[in-house]
Amino acid sequence: MIAATLLVALGFSFTGAGAATAAPSAPAAAAPVTALTTPITGTGDNGSFAGTFTPSRFSGQNGNLVATGVLTGTVSDASGDTVGTVTRTVALPVTIAAVTCQVLNLVLGPLHLDLLGLVIDLNQVHLLINAVQAPGNLLGNLLCAITHLLDGTPTAGGLAALLNAILALLGRL
Asked: What span is annotated as the signal peptide, if there is one (predicted)?
């Protein structure tokens, strides 16, 4: 359950048709974990594709995280007639959904201030500042990077190793 929650929290999204590339020659991949099957659809000028992608392993390529697995589906022409079917091992880029990181969580208790007859009463103040890390969120990306500067954030290869361990655990269920 924790592994499934982690995968959902990371918010994996796979891009549609046209992004798939043949998997590079690599050690034999583990058996696909069918519980993680993701629908894949895409359209083009001459037709469409509808199918599923089932990841079998994750790896880092050029600093980016990719999922290698089995893509199966049906290719249709512009009129909707089936042209053929596809069952192929592919590597797809993995994107991580927007991440929110807490920058500041400040709680001030009630305050009573008496300055020469000027009385200021302030109830409890709770200041919470979150930064949203996503493409185009320059300040959010910068603040999240600063807040996680000393965390030892995993590289694409480190994240791939963690995800492969989760896949292996899910494969045993």
From this structure: 1-19
